[in-house]
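Sorry to interrupt, but I need a hand with the structure work. Leave the record below and I will have a look:
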Amino acid sequence: MKKIITAFYIIFFVTQQATFAETGNTFWNSYQDILNSTVTVNEFTSIDGEFSHASVNYETIKTDPELQKKITLLLEKLKTVKVPEEGKHKLAFWINAYNFFTIVDVVSNYPITSMKKIGWKSKHHEVEGTLYSLDNIEHNVIRPLADPRIHFAINCASVGCPSLKTEIFDGNQIDTQLDKIATNALKNPLHLRMVNNTLNTTQLFKWFNKDFESGGYEGVADFVNKFAPERLRDSSQIKKKIKYDWNLNTEQNVLKKMKELGTKFPELKLTIK
């Protein structure tokens, strides 16, 4: 009997370990396939350097039977997955979940012009037996992990939102991934730009101002000084907030917005690569 119990615990332990490993590595393979198939990395240059802003082909996801199967299978797996309980693997898991669920919501309601048509408050995303809304995941799960870089990692399917990452987040690499995302975002004039000696900033810094006093940062100015191009690090010049563009982050909308910015602010020297 003792041998049976011991064997049971060994099997249980190995199963749990496999579950945690899968969550960080192979668990999100279906989501990665969706990103690979439908996300375009649009590349740009400006006076402040090179940056990218991804767009999503929601119509393809909506109409492709294979991609629909991948969504269905992953939604089922999420219902019973063992979520990492702490640390960087937990953070990576929930960022992936948020971004995946956002795509699912858009596709389920497509064609729409904006995520605002759907909202973020409906509790219909099941993870480990619990129903979550996107608001729950962002404000009650991810933000309490106290890393302001997450505001440039979670994606609200909008042009004005920081670019959707085209790779899944991995707990073993997440610090490097978040640094790259923050650096890319603060080269993007949708989030930070100097016009007529005035530094215009994303509304994320206003909405989540206190968050930028956590995670080892001393506020918005400190965060900007770490990740922004040198020309944009004079926080004394911050005077305007950039109006958020809630249009869906399709390729047509992203390119249109960048062309508008290039025309309106020629001093940015903004071009599409």
In short: The beta strands are 39-46, 49-56, 125-127, 130-132, 192-195, 198-202, 238-242, 271-272. The first helix runs from residue 2 to 24. Residues 29-272 form one domain. The two ends are 68 Å apart (CA to CA).
